[in-house]
């Protein structure tokens, strides 16, 4: 290539270099020049802090490249001085955030189901249970029936009850159980047909009910305090503390993943925690919580209680040593009754306003 032609191409490249954006690659002019002079058309190095090229005169540049037999570009990597923590293999597996012992959640209202919009006479619902598909089945004490809502909060059906039911709990996605306070028994129902499957006598008046394990339920009773009943209707041995004997009051309860039982004592303004053997772990009291009623646990096995007299929802750490008001009258909470945390849907459902509506909150 003649010297004059080379100088012309160099001028073209100088012109092109002024048109390059900061985020583009540009080949060193001197390396191309040396390659052309020596007929060794291999680019050994790129001296640039850019990654691409933007050219206004593409025709001139393409003409130059067509004269090259080969161009080799060695990509380089800029090293930033950033301290990156070394992770163990276990830490490299990202897990969804779950609320743990020290995590106080935030709640966001998703939906209110107001019964006056469904029935002008206003139902009275204290207790309910939720399912993985978002379905809610509740006990309407005023009209003596079971009411079913879909995930949009629309009333699907109501079924006349055979007696005065009180507590209700989901056993599986297809079966639920209720306590019959008139006949001292537990009734087990098929969710789809609403047909009675089993009738279990408890001998004494019972109120609260919760699933204890895959094949058993726990029931709050007036005299014996707590009874655990298996799928055949037989009692499972459980050493209930004397504190729960002969209370003669409504006993609401819930069970966590470790088979610990938490009970709300409305008259005593307290929450008690029992381990799987029936040993008393702690008794919780606070000026923030008055008239504790519905009780449930979240994914971290922390406790959530409805304060029917304090008009709030109180979060209690699983060891009973810390509490916080999550919802108050400022959030529209007034005389809440039943409460349930659905772990599959990550929602907190509250029977609000003296049983006249159900409020559904996202658990953040």
SSE order and pairing:
Elements: H1 3-17, H2 29-38, H3 58-66, E1 107-114, E2 125-130, E3 136-140, E4 145-149, E5 155-160, E6 165-170, E7 175-180, E8 185-190, E9 196-201, E10 206-213, E11 216-221, E12 225-230, E13 235-236, E14 251-255, E15 261-265, E16 270-274, E17 280-284, E18 292-297, E19 303-307, E20 312-316, E21 323-327, E22 339-342, E23 347-352, E24 357-363
Antiparallel strand pairs: 1-24, 2-3, 3-4, 4-5, 6-7, 7-8, 8-9, 10-11, 11-12, 12-13, 14-15, 15-16, 16-17, 18-19, 19-20, 20-21, 22-23, 23-24
GO molecular function, one term: zinc ion binding
InterPro entries: 6-blade_b-propeller_TolB-like, TRIM-NHL_E3_ligases
Task: Report on the biggest sheet.
Answer: 4 strands, antiparallel
The CATH topology of the largest domain is what? Answer: Neuraminidase
Class derived from helix and strand content: mainly beta
CATH architectural group of the largest domain? 6 Propeller
**Segments where pLDDT lies below 50 for 5+ residues?**
21-27, 40-56, 69-85, 87-98
Strand order across the biggest sheet? Answer: 1-24-23-22
Proportion of helical residues: under 10%
What's the gyration radius in Å? 35 Å
How many β-strand runs?
24
Regarding CATH, which class of the largest domain? Mainly Beta
The structural domain count equals 2
CATH superfamily annotation of the largest domain: TolB, C-terminal domain
Question: How far is it from the N-terminal to the C-terminal residue, by CA?
Answer: 71 Å
Mean pLDDT across the residues is: 80
Beta-strand share of residues:
35-45%
How many DSSP H or I helices? 3
The gross shape turns out to be globular
Element order: H for helix, E for strand: HHHEEEEEEEEEEEEEEEEEEEEEEEE
InterPro entries: 6-blade_b-propeller_TolB-like, TRIM-NHL_E3_ligases
GO molecular function: ubiquitin protein ligase activity; zinc ion binding
